[in-house]
Amino acid sequence: MQALVKYGRGKGQMEVRQVEEAPLEPGELRIGVEAAGICGSDLHIYHDEIKIPIRVPVVLGHEFSGRVVELGAGVSPHLLGQRVTAMPSVRICGVCRYCRQGAINLCIRRQSMGYWHDGAFAPTCVVPERCALVLPESVDFRAGALAEPLACAVHAVCEQTRISAGDLVAIVGPGAIGLLCLQVVKAEGARALVCGLEKDAPRLELARALGADHIAVVGRDEVGERVRALSEGYGADVVLECSGHPAGATLALDLVAKGGKYTQVGLFGKPIQLDLEQIAVREIQFAGSFGQKPSAWKRTLKLLASGKVDTRRLISHEIPLAQWHRAFELFERQEGVKILLEVKAP
Predict the structure, then answer these.
(1) Does the pLDDT of residue 63 top 90, yes or no?
(2) pLDDT score recorded for residue 50
(3) Which residue range(s) make up the domain with 121?
(4) Over the stretch 264-289, which tens digit does the pLDDT of each residue have?
(5) Rounded Cα gap, residues 190 and 81, in angstroms
(6) pTM summary value
């Protein structure tokens, strides 16, 4: 089958290659991939800037949905033919303190699909049964392919930040993760301001359509003054930094109120400079958010089933696997929002 493979370390070193389907081990199942999305970390892998352990060669892709087409020994028979998505933490130790707490995203031996194990930029992929999650009937394959980034947003907003109804939440960066965080924030009953650059105008309008109470353009609007005007001069109760850009982190730190919460969601791919003294003197609660836990997945599927989050509206492009380079270029230029690769065999 044809798959998008990172075959060597260093920038680039990716191409569509013929690969063999992996044999099923006991407890594993094979999924026929129906839809697969490009993530910012896929771009970091392309540039070889990823901080998550990877091995090469590896098939990329961890945001996807599909149908179970084959079962390994010991897998529940009812899963055959089911419409599913999957948690990407395909290998965990199960015994470290993080695993025992349910924080499998922090497992010290975690190996993830699309990084260490072959992922979903191929017609089929293999995951352990515990990773497969049945999609709600009302969620189609394309919307279901965004369940994984939505679970990341749920983990960031609900588990790492724990916002409260009525909070003023500033979201820096109107990309896919920022727009998913926006919808989760609104589902939790908070107010949301989304900010971006001039080039993000279409994304900001989409943010407004998805429920943002306010939008702001950095460089045109005085974002800090805008936030303070909405908060009696204090600043945002919560800031979610979703851009993964150093300037976005600096802005986020400026926007958060004394005693407020700052959560870093976006990945930079390299070290950045940030005035950490501000965190101390303003008593800011600073948190990171990485991936997702099973508890976040449970809430994610409920949000999708209820219609409180619309992932389908974020899909802007669907591009054949053979044109992956074009898809990555569009992603890097931040054109559109979420790009899907068409990976099904003809």
Answers:
(1) yes
(2) 82
(3) 2-146+311-342
(4) 999 988 899 999 999 999 999 999 99
(5) 39
(6) 0.96
The DSSP annotation for 203-242 comes to HHHHHHHTT-SEEEEBTTB-HHHHHHHTTTTS-EEEEEE-
Helix (H, G, I), strand (E, B) or coil at 273: coil
Distance CA 144, CA 264 (A): 25
| Distance from C-alpha of 309 to C-alpha of 139, rounded to nearest angstrom | 11
pLDDT digits (tens, 9 = 90+) for 180-227: 999 999 999 999 999 999 999 999 999 999 999 999 999 888 999 999
**Contact status, residue 168 vs residue 236, Cβ threshold 8 Å:** yes
Do 142 and 196 reside in the same domain of the chain?
no
- One domain, residues 129 and 16: yes
116-128 as b/e: b if 16+ CB within 10 A: bbbbbbbbbbbbb
Residue 297 lies in a domain: no
Rg of the chain (C-alpha set): 20
State the Cα–Cα distance between residues 262 and 150, nearest whole angstrom: 19
**Is residue 301 situated within a structural domain?**
no
3-state helix, strand, coil in the chain (%, to 5): 35, 25, 40
* Contact yes or no for 278/284 (Cβ under 8 A): yes
What is the mean pLDDT of the segment spanning 25-45? 96
